[in-house]
Amino acid sequence: MPRIALASAIAATGHDDDQAPLLAACAHAGLDAQVLAWDDPTVSWRRYDAVLLRSTWNYTTRLPQFMAWCERVDRVTTLLNPLPVLRWNTDKHYLADLAAAGVPIVPSVFVETDEEPLTALRDFLALHLDSEEFVVKPAVGAGSRDAQRYARDQEFAAANHIGRLLDGGRSVLLQPYLASVDRDGETALIYFDGDFSHAIRKGPLLRADSDAADALFAREAITARVPVADERSVAGHVLAALAKTLGLATPLAYARIDLIRDSRGEPRLLELELCEPSLFFVHGADSASCFVDVVKRHVAAGPYAT
Ligand SMILES: Nc1ncnc2c1ncn2[C@@H]1O[C@H](COP(=O)(O)OP(=O)(O)O)[C@@H](O)[C@H]1O
Ligand SMILES: [Mg+2]
Asked: Which atom of ligand 1 is nearest to the CA of 144?
């Protein structure tokens, strides 16, 4: 019986809603699955036929250590998704690559650690004169941590936030706040092996009047959603651009595509999640067992060549 490790984090224990359905589907499909924390140094990862990244959410403030762990795992077993994909996808600079490939992304400006916060912010605001609000978030982030929404007249508070992130060695992403999220939420489309599985609606997460979240993840309001044709079309575009950008010969075991509509009503890519996305199995009938079938095939195929 193949043995797989589901990689979580010590701090995520008990918080991953995907875990119970995934473990049940693994047991049903004859996969010996065990949940282990990536930040537990006592684990011997070579004992598993594959290591599947799941709730490793706390890597965002220690990316070098996390990537070093991914590299160690990759040397001794099959890592899902594969290492080059994880390297690329753990930093939201990947959005620039996808924009260059023609994907409609949420308009994004990156601020690097050698830049001056207030100047960078004013340049951004001058580019987006019609945006009443904007978002400051770290380029390496997850679960809305350290992300915050500001009004145009909160320039100094926002510049402070940018400065704090830059001082911590973290690049920053500035985006107009797409207000459609307040009414329509965002749509997350989940693909297994390149095939659409299911989708969910996630309610808005950034309140206008609160400080940046620093919990491991924000509480999310999730419901099942049937994606509209234009969302399916943008998601297809994202997957094609991904394959081209990274030179992937075959589809990835899992991908999640998060979209928000802009002021013209067009869906735009907020995030492409290829590392440790929540897959919301409870909102997709049979989705956990379909996913486990895909994982089994990837494990049998062995390490992914890119
Ligand atoms: N430009 C934006 N417009 C509207 N809402 C946003 C925007 N950027 C982020 N958000 C809100 O913040 C949440 C977290 O941002 P996201 O880019 O998904 O980063 P992560 O999930 O990696 O922390 C989103 O789910 C959304 O609710
Ligand atoms: Mg997100």
From this structure: 23
Domain boundaries, the chain: 3-89+295-301, 109-176
Is 136 close to ligand 1, i.e. is its CB under 6 Å away?
A: no
- Cβ within 8 Å of residue 119, ≥6 positions away: none
Q: Which CATH number fits domain 109-176: 1.10.1760, 3.30.70, 3.30.1490, 1.10.510?
A: 3.30.1490
112: its two tokens: 């690097």
CA distances from 218 to 57, 108, 208, 215, 241 (A): 12, 22, 15, 7, 30
Whether cis (ω within 30° of 0) applies to the bond prior to 81 is yes
pLDDT in tens, 55-111: 999 999 899 999 999 999 999 999 999 999 999 999 999 999 999 999 999 999 999
Please identify every residue annotated as catalytic: 219, 256, 273
148 lines ligand 1 (CB under 6 A): no
Ligand having the closest approach to the CA of 146:
1
pTM strictly above 0.85 = yes
Could you tell me which CATH number the domain at 3-89+295-301 has?
3.40.50.20
Atom of ligand 1 nearest to the CA of 177: 3
